Amino acid sequence: MPKKVQMKRTQVKGERFTLPREEVSIEKLIQKGLTLENKAKEIKQELDEVKERLIEVATARRDGTTTVSLAGISGDVLVTYRESYVCGPGIESLRIELRDMFPRFFTKKEEYSTTKELVKFLESEHGLGLENAEAVKEMIRTHLTKKEIKPNVKITHREA
User: Fold this and answer.
1) pLDDT digits over 84-143, tens only?
2) Is the CB of residue 66 less than 8 Å from the CB of residue 123?
3) Nearest-CA neighbor of 140 among 110, 81, 95?
4) How is the chain split among helix, strand and coil, in percent rounded to 5?
5) Burial letters for 30-59: b for 16+ Cβ neighbours within 10 Å, e otherwise?
6) Residue 39 host element (H or E)
7) What is the C-alpha to C-alpha distance for residues 11 and 64, in angstroms, rounded to an integer?
8) How many CB atoms lie within 10 A of CB 76?
9) Which pTM value belongs to this model?
10) Boundaries of every domain in the chain
C-alpha cells in the first residue's frame, strides 16, 4: 500500500500552492534563507561604510605608522595599513650595480616584484655589506613606487 502524502497549502509571491508538507517546509526555509541573505548583504554594506569612515579618521591621524588605534567608550578600533613596493620599468638597470644582491631583492615574473629582503634592506639601518648602502637604497627607490593595499579594520568590544 503506497504511503499517503500529506498536502499543505502555502503562498509564494502572492500565489497559492498546494504541495506536499515536506516541500512546503523546504520552501519556507528557502524564503527565510533568502531574507536573511538580503539582510546580511545590507548589514555588510553598512559595516563597510562604517569601516571606510574609520579608515578616513585613522588616515588623518596616521603620521606614517602602519597601525593606528582609535579608542572609544564602547570599544576600540585598530586600523592596519598594508603596503608593498612596485617595481618600475628600469629596474633591470640595477642588476649591474647590485650584482649578487639583485636576485635577493627582486624576483622576475612577467615583471619584477620585490622581496621581503628588499623591504628589510630599505627600511633598516643595515647595509648588508654594501659599500655606500644609502646611495644604493636611493638608487633602488628611484625605480620603485609604494603601493598601499586597503587597510584592515578590526573593531573590538571593550570589556566592562
Assistant:
1) 888 888 888 888 888 888 888 888 877 778 888 888 888 887 777 777 888 888 888 888
2) no
3) 95
4) 45, 30, 25
5) eeeeeeeeeeeeeeeeeeeeebeebbeebe
6) helix 21-60
7) 59
8) 13
9) 0.54
10) 7-58, 65-157
Separation CA 62–CA 52 (nearest Å): 15
Tell me which long-range contacts 76-80 makes (C-beta under 8 A, separation of at least 24): 76/155, 76/156, 76/158, 77/153, 77/154, 77/155, 77/156, 78/153, 78/154, 78/156, 79/54, 79/55, 79/151, 79/152, 79/153, 79/154, 80/151, 80/152, 80/153, 80/154
Percent with pLDDT over 70 in the chain: 94
Positive or negative: CA dihedral 45, 51, 57, 59: negative
pLDDT at 46: 96
Compute the distance between CA of residue 135 and CA of residue 157 in angstroms, rounded to an integer. Answer: 47
As given in the structure block, the three cell numbers for residue 74 are 564602547
Identity at 30, one-letter amino acid code: I
Q: How far is CA 122 from CA 63, 96, 144, in A?
A: 19, 18, 11
